Automatic annotation (TrEMBL):
It comes from Protea cynaroides. The keyword Heme does not apply. It is found in: Mitochondrion. One of its GO terms (cellular component) is glycine cleavage complex. This is Aminomethyltransferase. The glycine cleavage system is composed of four proteins: P, T, L and H. Keywords: Aminotransferase, Mitochondrion, Transferase, Transit peptide. Belongs to the GcvT family. InterPro entries: GcvT, GcvT/YgfZ/DmdA, GcvT/YgfZ_C, GcvT_C, GCVT_N, TrmE/GcvT-like. The glycine cleavage system catalyzes the degradation of glycine. One of its GO terms (biological process) is glycine catabolic process.
Amino acid sequence: MRGGLWQLGQSITRRLGQADKKAVARRCFASEAELKKTVLYDFHVTNGGKMVPFAGWSMPIQYKDSIMDSTLNCRENGSLFDVSHMCGLSLKGKDCVPFLEKLVIADVAGLAPGTGSLTVFTNEKGGAIDDSVITKVKDDHIYLVVNAGCRDKDLAHIEEHMKAFKAKGGDVSWHIYDERSLLALQGPLAAPALQHLTKDDLSKFYFGEFRMLDINGVHCFLTRTGYTGEDGFEISVPSEHALDLAKAILEKSEGKIRLTGLGARDSLRLEAGLCLYGNDMEQHTTPVEAGLTWAIGKRRRAEGGFLGADVILKQLEEGPAIRRVGLFSSGPPARSHSEIVDDTGKGLGEVTSGGFSPCLKKNIAMGYVKSGSHKPGTKVKIVIRGKSYDGTITKMPFVPTKYYKPPSPPK
């Protein structure tokens, strides 16, 4: 949904306060009857979740606390998000790695078993179909999660290419985990709380790694990752056990980890400088333009072999025409589509996500500008409702990340 979830949260919170729920549903292009519900829907409502339509699902935008308070609590203590609207799937078979490498920019073959990476599904023009976290479970098993709003097009894209691949004798099949739910546990208390519920030593389990293990007595898929910039986990759990697991996590944190909605999830990911697909990356945006060059494996740069590789490799060599940047700005917070101009009013690009940072207490945004105007410290103007306000290009993330990584070897 364009404009960012933070802004959506603010406008919907105001509308809910006016008891205009029918108008909210109409504005979000779905009625309550049409929306899918996660198995935690009643739990959200019981705990004060304000439910809104998002990507065809009824999801909590926030709970009883404000979006600002819940953002700060995630950074100070922790948050539990229901992200069961996202789509988890596995690719299996002896050829699943070469198959996936035709569709994504990552060096999947180079991943060690049990490790993963962010990657991008590309189209023939090098544009981003979606971003995804993929994990090589074993050489013949890949686990990945795709965005809820991209589910239908992603699955159709994968299926189309899989049929052609199998027709040529390739060994690959898939399973979509509609029988499982997905929880995201984020923040400094994530690991201590989860450690109470598993016998596995989480201190030896690092950012980007994947395991299958028992949590709260149930077989789960656990990835040390997230969408907040904090340490944390995504937990795939059989849906019939999702409610018990959510309750157990909240209980083990003694109330410090809180249920958190999509509003704070958006402000957290913006502070961490992470893209929201549909805002900061779209089908016409390449990974190079989006600042995700690091996700293109060295071998893939040399060999290509993925959709749109000719466009992307040319951009790597010559540089892209536009680049994703971070911005600080004065005045009201910049929103999606706010124009970025230079001192003379000449257009440089536009904002794709923006809002007020609860942690920094200042306006932050990200967007795209012409190459040459992308260097940190560059002064710009941001046009909001016809008025120009001072802005400065800055590095991202805005808030330092706290991913749990192995200790550096002594020098």
